[in-house]
Amino acid sequence: MTDLVIRSIEPGEERLFASLPDPALVGRARFGQDYLTMAATGAYRPEWTWVALREDVVVARAAWWGGPKDSKPITLDWFDFTDAEAAAELLRASPLRAEYELRLPPGWRADPAVLAAGEGRIAAAEAAGYRVLVERFRYLWTPECGVPDRPGRLVFRPAPDEESVLQAFRLIHQGSLDAHVRLRIEEDGLEAAAREELDYLKWLPSPRSAWLLAYTPAGELVGITVPGHTPSDPVVGYIGVVPEQRGHGYAFDLLVEATQVHAEAGVDRIAAATDQTNTPMAATFARAGYPVQMERVDLV
Fold first, then answer.
1. Interatomic CA distance for residues 91 and 34, integer angstroms
2. Exposure string over 149-176, b if 16+ CB within 10 A, otherwise e
3. What was the pLDDT predicted at 68?
4. Contact 52, 40 (CB under 8 A)
5. What is the pLDDT of residues 135-173, one digit of tens each?
6. Cβ distance 158 to 211 under 8 Å?
């Protein structure tokens, strides 16, 4: 068999990456995103874009994504191939390490072709050493979904400083149902998990005034909600309730507040996500009128 050549692309070789046939069953292409268009805007960098070639023909490819100011990629989110073994070898050979986010249409297991495409990518990633951490729902609110009324049970104030947010995360992460939080606590402890969450909020290109702490009328801390922005979308950046306030349905109040803040600013969409195993939060999104736009499998 012809030797496999694995390398990152050079500036100007974006069309080489795009030469692999793609039926757009899964991944970013399924949702109308085009690699060449995204690369032209700087969303993908040549040094983070890798190909596996046989006789100068692309048989596998992988592109890692990071924000404009990131020095290393945050996610692997473009990965496909015509040769599964070459794809696994590409992931093993590349020095880049980041979580793999596989984007899938809702109910993807019901379509045999989509199921095969999704499972094939998961299997190739697993062959390279990845493992499935969790499956997630991604929501996309638009004005047509309607804006739920504020329940009026809580008082919201911008966080006065980073320490107040960090302390909220220390509390919220206790007993968390979020798979990423649980993994980080298992590996590095509660403090590291709390600081990682704070670092994420600081990474978002939105003002810190969006970090809203929620209190009961008596002044007891309930949690935090963050109507923020990623580099591409208005988002529900975070929702969390402290342990002693759980069981009252306050996550709905937090989600409504984030929705109201964004709607008042006139946004045309709000992206959000939660683990499929976090059934209380998934039910909260459904109650607030957030439709599932896609499913996602996260591999670490």
1. 22
2. eeeeebebeebeeeeebbbbbbbbbeeb
3. 87
4. no
5. 999 999 999 999 999 999 999 999 999 999 999 999 999
6. yes
Q: Is 127 helix (H, G, I), strand (E, B) or coil?
A: helix
Phi, psi values for residue 272, rounded to 5°: -160, 165
| pLDDT at res. 1 | 56
* Encoded tokens for 50: 């890798």
159 contacts 230 by C-beta, under 8 angstroms: no
Residues 6 or more apart whose Cβ sits within 8 Å of residue 69: none
Residue whose entry in the numeric block shows the structure tokens 């195993």 = 277
- Backbone phi and psi for residue 244, each to the nearest 5 degrees, phi listed first: -70, -10
d(C-alpha 179, C-alpha 182), whole Å: 5
pTM of the complete model: 0.94
The alpha-helical segments, DSSP class H, found in the chain are 14-17, 35-40, 84-93, 112-127, 162-172, 179-188, 190-203, 250-264, 279-287
CB of 54 within 8 A of CB of 2?
yes
